[in-house]
Structure formats: C-alpha cells, structure tokens
Design goal:
With 156 residues, the protein is an alpha+beta fold. Helix content is 53%, strand content 19%. The protein is built from two helices and four strands, in the order ααββββ. Strands 1-2-3-4 form a four-stranded antiparallel sheet. The chain is rod-shaped, with a radius of gyration of 41 Å.
C-alpha cells in the first residue's frame, strides 16, 4: 500500500529538499570562484582599462586641439603678411602694382607670398577696366591653408 504523508510532514520534506538544493548550489558556486581576491583583481583590471581608454581619448583630443591652435596661428600670420603687402601696394599706388612670382617673405621664414594682377570687366562701358590685385600667402612648414586678400583698383 502507498503511504500518503500528512500535509505538515510533506511541507517539511519539501523545505528540507529546498534547503539541501540551495546549500549544494552555494557549495558549487564557492568551489568555482575559490578566492574572493580574484574578483577584486578582475574589477581593478576592468576599471584600469576603462580609465586608460578615457585618458587616451583625452590625450588625442588635446593633441588635435593644439594642432588646430598652431594652424590658426599660421593662418593669422599669413593674413597679416597678405594685408601688409596690400598696404605696401596701396602706399606706392595700386595703378603701379606689378605681378610678383611666389617668393619667401623676408623676416618670416616658412612663408611665401605672391601677387597676381588680373584685368576685370568693364561693366559700365566707360572704358575704365578695373585691376583685380590678389596677394596670396601660404606657409611651408605650418599646418595653415593659403590665405588670399584681394583689392580692386578702378581708375577715376
């Protein structure tokens, strides 16, 4: 005959089996991890990698920023040199300005300057053709783009 345990006894047996299962899971888990210091070391290594990646990103950002600042400085010097040459041409008279080939700028190593003069279009039919004077300066060593300044001379 089959014996059916009363409800109180069945609950006790169920609780005992649940406790045994939980205890065996805990023992298996402890056996796999072994020492708790290994987890702390793993956490430290992971945090170190995250911090290292962030520091590399910051270093690259500062490096790119400084190169942009250097390039901007080169463009400012080039703009100054182009404006300076245009003022020299205005001082002698734009009508007497002549085309100059690209050559080094005295006192500013690494910069070359050229002056081009082109004829414009007589828009009003007066016969006075404007002269378009363009001064271009570029840097040979800095990370700056070429800078051009243009003036238009119309004879009155």
């Amino acid at each position: 005959m089959i014996r059916i345990p009363p409800i109180a006894e069945a609950m006790t047996l169920f609780e005992c089996s649940w406790v045994r299962a939980a205890r065996s899971r805990a023992l298996r888990f402890r056996g796999r991890l072994g020492d708790e210091r290994g987890i702390a070391l793993l956490e430290v290594l992971t945090a170190s990698v995250v911090v290292l990646i962030a520091m590399i990103g910051l270093a690259l950002m500062f490096s790119m920023g400084s190169s942009y600042v250097r390039a901007e400085g080169g463009e400012r010097v080039a703009l100054f040199l182009a404006q300076q040459r245009l003022e020299e041409l205005r001082a002698i008279g734009l009508a007497r300005a002549v085309t100059e080939a690209e050559r080094a700028v005295p006192g500013f190593p690494g910069f070359v300057r050229s002056t081009t003069i082109a004829a414009g279009i007589d828009l009003d039919g007066s016969g006075d053709v404007p002269r378009i004077i363009t001064v271009s300066v570029r840097s040979l060593i800095r990370q700056a783009g070429p800078v051009s300044v243009t003036a238009v001379y119309i004879k009155h």
